[in-house]
């Protein structure tokens, strides 16, 4: 029996079979969880449908996280399948492409800042606000995905770094609030991974090389590495862990110098 046997998990943020959310879904399915999936738009529906069926799931609900109404409708739809919920996985982020390169100050706008923070941080709170009633009394857990750019200044990551810093503070404030209801809230901070979100990012190969040459484990991480840690954090094995940011990055974040 897997360590997530009888748990029901909602997976938000699959865009392709390289998505971190897909690595998390597969690990949770392997450990015995029942899964439900959302998809952002019609373009992604059939793709997510195929992946859901690989996890024996036929719960597939549209949801653009930028809309409170769509989030409400999504949970109303989920309630038709399940009375309750044990796990919510949030793996979604966005900033306008032009703001993810070059000078931070020159390329960040008020509107880009708003979009990055709304899409990448507020959406996690929004899922908690609408989903908490279904998670009552279930030793439930929420999980999001962040990046080292929240804690350290990085070239090109720019306004996303601020949005991820907000998301990490969000993990702590949500953990504080939801702890009263027994709901745990954590994040995994993943090393760089070639996903759709990383495609077209300047110098991404260089970042992967730096990790491979310098991280303690001398390799990059996979969506399976991230998925396994996420599955653990959402399981009862992690019953005493909340408000925590767990690095899944081959140890890269501990370095003080690269030789
Ligand atoms: O958080 C991310 C990526 C988030 C992201 C990616 C895009 C690309 C397409 C957010 N918004 C957009 N908007 C788009 O239009 N990562 C951790 C991956 C990533 O993105 C970077 C990185 C790394 C690593 C951007 C610049 C520098 C490094």
Give a structural overview:
- With about 260 residues, this protein is an alpha/beta fold.
- Helix content is about 40%, strand content about 15%.
- The chain has 8 helices and 7 strands.
- The chain has helices spanning about 20-30, 40-55, 70-80, 105, 110-130, 160-180, 205-215, 225-235, and strands at about 10, 35-40, 60, 85-90, 140-145, 185-190, 245-250.
- The chain has a 7-stranded parallel sheet, sandwiched between helices.
- Strand 1, helix 1 and strand 2 form a beta-alpha-beta unit.
- Helix 3 packs parallel to helix 5 (about 110-130) and helix 5 packs parallel to helix 6.
- The longest helix has 22 residues, at about 110-130.
- It starts with 7 loop residues before the first strand and ends in an 11-residue tail after the last strand.
- About 45% of the residues are buried.
- Bound molecules: ligand 0WE.
- The site of ligand 0WE has 14 residues, from loops.
